[in-house]
Description:
Blueprint: E1 2-7, E2 12-21, E3 32-42, H1 44-48, H2 55-77, E4 86-92, H3 96-113, E5 117-121, H4 122-128, H5 130-134, E6 141-146, E7 151-158, E8 162-168, H6 174-185, H7 192-199, H8 226-241, H9 248-274, E9 278-282, H10 289-302, E10 305-307, H11 311-314, H12 319-330
Parallel strand pairs: 1-4, 4-5, 6-9, 9-10
Antiparallel strand pairs: 1-2, 2-3, 6-7, 7-8
The protein binds adenosine-5'-triphosphate, magnesium ion and fe (iii) ion (FE).
Fe (iii) ion binds at residues 122, 126, 147, 283, 316.
Amino acid sequence: RIIMGIETSCDETGVGLARLFEDGADDAAEPRVELLADEVASSVELHARYGGVVPEVASRAHLEAMAPTTRRALATAGLSLSDVDAIAVTAGPGLAGSLLVGVAAAKAYAAALDVPLYGVNHLAGHVAVDTLEHGPLPKPCLALLVSGGHTQLLRVDDVATKITELGSTVDDAAGEAYDKVARIVGLPYPGGPPIDKAAKEGDPEAIAFPRGMTGPRDAPFDFSFSGLKTAVARWIEAAERQSEPIPVPDVCASFQEAVADVLTMKAVAAAREYGIGTMVISGGVAANSRLSALARERCEAAGIELRVPRPRLCTDNGAMIAALGAHVVAADLPTSPLDFSATPALPVSTVTVR
Ligand code: ATP
Ligand code: MG
Ligand code: FE
């Protein structure tokens, strides 16, 4: 069956197509899913001058990009709308006005084509996307989800039906910290890629930035990045007061090291605590070179299999929603009613909305 996935939770309009193989295998076998198309139209340049996503601008951009992006995805896959057997759409979490555009489009397509419609969880999609690249997920697996809006450790018993949050950030998301620190040191938005690049020329041990939430009384699987951001700002202010030149590469490398250190330390500790042998890292920050290198090192030392989807699949896209939709279809879950609504604060434990 062909599943179309629609994603509009933030500033990317994504339409993906995935094929679900049903080779008559026994029910116990994990579904096999293949990527057919992944088209993304981003409005990120429109937000760059504001240093962050402007919701009204994002909604309008989704409205304009929805139909052409859908046409491009179908053309890439060599399919037509009538070939689509089911539709999945991000129901939340995300920006209300952005989510609404995708949900309305998905409902219209589903009604017109008379195919089942599933409102699904964006965060579960970030995990499910890995099956397009690395095949079925072992059960259970641990997911470290690190993006512009979220930083969570998840226990995934079944990506379509059972996801449990083990911990999350108590303040800023990891990507948000990258974006704020970039602004502080004068690098463009979004801050992840330029900091990653600048850090390559710097010394990660030049400045000892704090590791948030790692004290003995802190929740073991929660994160905090706002203190780190403040520490970077203070450090820059102090250097400026002394009229010293700012060693941007060293600041970036030291900041990046602090983020990667805490994320990987806690993820490995959670995998150990729950006896989980596979870790998936996803979300935009998973594209960070230091994070994946350190995770690889520490997972190897701990005997944990590490899976990181290619960067293109880590940031928001429609393929991740098509992939999750395929797993939902394979699990034979009930469809979402045509009157379901976008849910900006949808918890990760709700994989499909009813
Ligand atoms: P959501 O939390 O809803 O998934 P989002 O759209 O902001 O929201 P993504 O598109 O997955 O999330 O990720 C964007 C974030 O990833 C930005 O904060 C960006 O700075 C960060 N990012 C992208 N590339 C890198 C990188 N190489 N290193 C660090 N951070 C990065
Ligand atoms: Mg984005
Ligand atoms: Fe996302």
